[in-house]
Amino acid sequence: MNRRGFLLGLLGLPAAGCAPAGCAAGEPSDELPVAAGERGGLYYDFATLLAARLDPGLRARVVETEGSLANLDLLRSGGARVALTLADAARGADPLPDLRALGRVYENYLQLVVRADDPARHVADLAGRVVSLGAAGSGASLSGGRVLVAAGLAGRVRVEHLRLAEAARALVDRRVDALLWSGGVPTPVLARLPAVRLLPLAGLLGGLRAAHGSVYEQAPVPVGVYGSAREVATIGVANLLVCRAGLPDAVAASITRTLVSRAAALVPDQTVGTQYLDVRSLIGTTGLPLHPGAAAAYRDLHG
């Protein structure tokens, strides 16, 4: 058997055709779709770097999506074999029972953005106003809803669900008063906006953790990001690279070894904050079990 046929066998896929339970409609049978996120965001950039460095025989392909929730739906349907997700989405209201982690990669920052001339200084100041909480399938839509509850604003703001580029335009055009984005800092789309700033969110951390557990942590946005003259205390959520338990061990191990061995080449521009691509932190998957193939690879690499 040639190398490509061997890798297809590891994926559980035939060299031609498509097993009914293993592929979404129209999904090529000899690819490894990686569910990512919106163009311009950390997920898409990271997935693009990763796919280019995985074993070529796996034929990894980046799938643009609205974000974490959409990615988990693709895993559920078989439209993706690997996906990126926020830790809070992975442990949401309807978790996949066989969801497994390949590693914890980067930290996402919850970024509540307003125009620099806006009078709002705190989340509570947005009462009665219009806020975009990210695309409907994004992790920001989940995290953002929880932020509103923690801030006592549930039902007291008009919520829109816009993709990042559309939300940024709407903010500049004053069609929305604020946008919530979950991603790296600085996110390039936001960095290009004229005169914006972030509202601090860390004051909501206690309420969020009490309601939803320790997936949330304080994350400082450094001085200078988006022109800020001071550090802004916001909330961080771990990004996980995940799959389902049925992904063959050898494929999971191959992906995991790439995360470790090619770490320096997997750094998107928007990662001013904490970098997680080393063995010690990759295994900190916020309670989600590691895939056995990934666990074996980490043991081989680090003992």
TrEMBL record:
Coiled coil: none
UniProt-listed Pfam families: NMT1_3
Gene3D superfamilies per the UniProt record, alphabetical: Periplasmic binding protein-like II (3.40.190.10)
Signal sequence, start to end: 1-21
Keyword field: Receptor, Signal
Protein name, entry field: TRAP transporter TAXI family solute receptor
Source organism of the structure: Saccharothrix algeriensis
